[in-house]
Design brief:
This protein has one domain (14-238). The chain contains nine helices and two strands, in the order ααββααααααα. The protein has helices at residues 14-47, 50-53, 66-85, 91-109, 112-115, 118-141, 147-170, 173-202, 210-238; strands spanning 57-58, 63-64. It has a two-stranded antiparallel ribbon. The model is unreliable at 1-10 (pLDDT under 50).
Length: 243
């Protein structure tokens, strides 16, 4: 998330600052919840509708279709688009892009219902929500500056990405397990770091301004990615695969 689209102002103090923070974070979590509902609903729909799933995977060959690859890769492009064009896009366009991103992510997530049992997906989602909630509260309440900690987590994230690309060709089960364990630690830490970052940001953007609305959307995207990746890493570790 790019936090440099606004000029830092003197933090809003006192009751006004508290109200501004609560309002900002309320929008962040509202947008995040909306994205999760969209992704979850579409994932469930595609997983339970063979005709829709057929647009993403060829059941005869077991390989993804062209549309399936588009759905898999397009969300990455949409995240980059939102980050790069946040200053130029209107709030409406930014929100629409976020919803499209959530929908396409939901389509790609439909494949997890083919690999894991519904009960293990549900239990892992609940586990992820608990861990995410604890770390978000920690990031909000701690007085310790997590900037250096966040930098370490970002280095870990880069390492995970590189290792995942390598393992895409190696298909190593052991390496996949190690990546998942480290991933859980990294995204757990990033949740606290990003939450503290959003709290600080909430006091530096004017309440009700276009910048505040844009940053709340970008904040929702950041926390959505933290939660989604935490969920997927935990699912790889504890999910029960279908026979």
């Amino acid at each position: 998330m790019d936090s440099n689209i606004f000029s830092p102002n003197t933090p809003i103090a006192g009751a006004e600052g508290i109200a501004s923070t609560r309002s900002f974070l309320s929008r962040v979590f509202t947008y995040m919840a909306l994205a999760l509902v969209v992704s979850g609903s579409i994932a469930w729909w595609f997983a339970n509708d063979r005709a829709m799933l057929g647009y993403l995977i060829n059941f005869e060959t077991g390989k993804q279709t062209i549309l399936g690859w588009v759905v898999l890769l397009a969300p990455i492009g949409l995240v980059l688009l939102m980050s790069a064009m946040v200053q130029r896009m209107s709030v409406t366009a930014l929100l629409a892009t976020f919803i499209v991103y959530s929908a396409m992510t939901g389509m790609s997530l439909s494949f997890i219902f083919l690999a894991y049992t519904s009960s293990s997906i549900a239990s892992t989602f609940f586990m992820s929500a608990v861990v995410f909630g604890i770390m978000a509260i920690t990031g909000y309440t701690t007085r310790t500056d997590l900037t250096k900690f966040g930098s370490i987590m970002m280095i870990g994230l880069v390492g995970i990405i590189i290792a995942s690309v390598v393992n895409f060709f190696m298909h190593s089960t052991t390496m996949g397990y190690v990546i998942s364990v480290i991933g859980v630690l990294v995204f757990t830490g990033l949740t606290a770091y990003d939450m503290q970052k959003l709290k600080v940001m909430s006091t530096q953007v004017g309440e009700g301004t276009e910048i505040a609305q844009k940053m709340s959307l970008m904040g929702a995207l950041t926390l959505y990615l933290d939660f989604l990746n935490l969920f997927l890493m935990l699912l790889r570790l504890f999910g029960n695969r279908r026979n």
